[in-house]
Amino acid sequence: MIQRARTRRARVVFLAAVLVLLVMIVASLALGARAIAPGVIVDAFLRPDPALADHVVVLSQRVPRTIIGVVAGAALALAGTLMQGLTRNPLADPGLLGINAGASVAVLVAITVLGITNPGGFVWFAFGGAAVAAAAVAVIGSRGPDGGNPAKLALTGAAVTAGLTAVTMLVLTTSTLAFDTFRYWSVGGLTSRGLDAVVAVLLPLLVGAVIAFSSGRGLDLIALGESTAAGLGHNVARTRSLGIVATVLLCGGATAIAGPIVFLGLLVPHALRALVGDDYRRLLLIGAPVGAAVLLLADVIGRFIGSPGEIQAGVVVAFVGAPVLIALVLRKKQVAL
Which stretches are transmembrane (predicted)? Predict the structure, then answer.
């Protein structure tokens, strides 16, 4: 009876999440420095006219940033859910693998060594840097006694992140060009990147999403304890390895197209537990549309509170997410499973 009630609630929450996401997609297309009526938006899709300013704004500016928001928000939510399941810690974050720090160093290399200054040109550098950093954390954390232990993985990630952050600060304090270019990318946002950036990382994101959705049952077993999961015949090492690969693909792809956006991957799955419980299959399924909706909401809010300019979505997510997360932690009085 209790299980049936939870399933019913999860379905309601999922449908609500999808509905909110649809509303936020419309809002993202319609709202901004100039409000555009829904009818004009539909007309821009069906009968685009380059002579009409509203059509140009919708198709060339708001459609790309909306798609980037949906893709990056969903990917970050999935990556955060995976990390929390793999480490059995509801406050774990994709940054635990040094992904943001690795992406930042790679972007700085692109700026200082290759002279790239367009954010759209950072896509593969950010993705590659994130992948290399995460691979280093995974390899180092799996060596020696208790290799692959979540606590050891977290400590390794913290050490690698600290080292890469020191490199980032060193470059930024010695290069004015790097500082001026990097500071805009580093806050995280949905602007200055086109659909070509999404296309470039679409395959890795899809592969990561497929692995994530197929990992739900394994994460539920790991939540019971690694020895219990192994006793039930589950291959814990395989689930952890695939989970790390999926996290790198998802978070690396999201960081490549939207910059390092903090808190979203941490906040979404943690908040959803209060509504749907600890079943990772539900958390993954519902988390994807919720993450997309949250990032679009942050982007829309940033368009208004920064008027006549804009505040990047990454800043809004961090500003709003920090107090919300603190409230959740104080209410639950729990930081680990």
Answer: 66-83, 95-116, 122-141, 153-177, 197-214, 243-271, 283-305, 311-330
Q: Is 62 exposed, middle or buried (0-12, 13-18, 19+ CB in 10 A)?
A: buried
Residue-wise pLDDT tens digits, 194-243: 888 899 899 999 999 999 999 999 998 888 877 787 787 788 888 888 99
Handedness of CA 67, 70, 74, 80 (dihedral sign): positive
Q: Pick from 224, 220, 208: which is nearest to 288 by CA?
A: 208
Rounded (10°) CA dihedral 233, 235, 239, 244: 150
- Cα–Cα distance for residue pair 145/220, rounded to 1 Å: 25
CA 114, CA 93: separation in Å to the nearest integer? 31
The angle subtended at Cα 285 by Cα 280 and Cα 291, nearest 5°, is 105
**Which among 78, 300, 269 is positioned nearest to 189, based on CA atoms?**
300
Instruction: Read off the tokens for 190.
Output: 């949905």
Which structure tokens are listed for 136? 């280093």
Kind and range of the H or E run holding 336:
none
- pTM value is 0.90
The residue extents of the domains of the chain are 2-332
- What number of residues does the chain have? 337
Residue 117, φ and ψ in degrees, nearest 5: -125, -10
Structure tokens at 306: 């920064």
The hierarchical CATH code for the domain 2-332 is 1.10.3470.10
Tens-digit pLDDT profile for residues 160-176: 999 999 999 988 888 88
| C-beta of residue 194 within 8 angstroms of C-beta of residue 64 | yes
Ramachandran area for residue 93 (φ above 0: left; ψ -120 to 50: alpha; else beta)? beta
Dig out the tokens for 9 from the structure: 């609630």
> Could you give the CA distance from residue 288 to residue 21 in angstroms, rounded to a whole number?
10
Alpha helices in the chain (DSSP H): 2-30, 38-46, 53-57, 63-87, 99-112, 123-141, 150-172, 176-186, 195-214, 216-222, 226-231, 236-258, 264-276, 280-305, 313-332
Those residues whose C-beta lies under 8 Å from the C-beta of residue 194, and which sit 6 or more positions away, are 64, 120
